[in-house]
Amino acid sequence: MSEPARLPAASEKKVDGRTLRFRHRRPELLAAATDYVLDHGIQDLSLRPVAQALGISHATLIRHFETKDALLNEVLEHIRTDFEKQLLSEEIRRVDSAADLLRAAWQHLCRPREQRQFLILFELVAIAARSPNHPASRLVTDWLTVIERELIRYHWPAETTSRTATFVLAQIRGLQLDLITTGDRERVDAAFEATVAFLTDSGIGDQRQPS
Prior knowledge:
11 helices; Arc Repressor Mutant, subunit A; about 70% helix; about 0% strand
């Protein structure tokens, strides 16, 4: 005799069919939302225009990202992880030294499409500076983690890894601000080369591609 069909418990969460329909598209939606934010900035960011641009309903976007702040946090994470993937790409990895890796990463970041992330960064820094309780530390700490990991891969001395990563991050961001403001690529590239030369004198030029 077959067992009677089990009725779902009252505590079981009801599955929204629309959520299931878009579940497999979440990475695609996040990538599209990231492009939207990078193109339009965050000053007037609102979920309804984002949803419209992505061709989905406002409710669907909320279902995936809940709030504007939650979406922005995921966008920032997507930007960082995408850069990490680029660091691991053959285009950037086919270098022999840490100094050459820095140069390859710099050339990548100078592409107009990549420079958009610095515009978002500067917007967020301005907001954080006016909002003492704004959780802005990840704008630094998340990226320091990426740079420190690369320095460690190239056998950089552990006792100076943190301050070297801080120096590299500050130089890249400062020079990108200059480049975006002035468009003087030749002068800014020369300043970046001075940064690499300083690091080379500090020992980075001796750090070869890890086996």
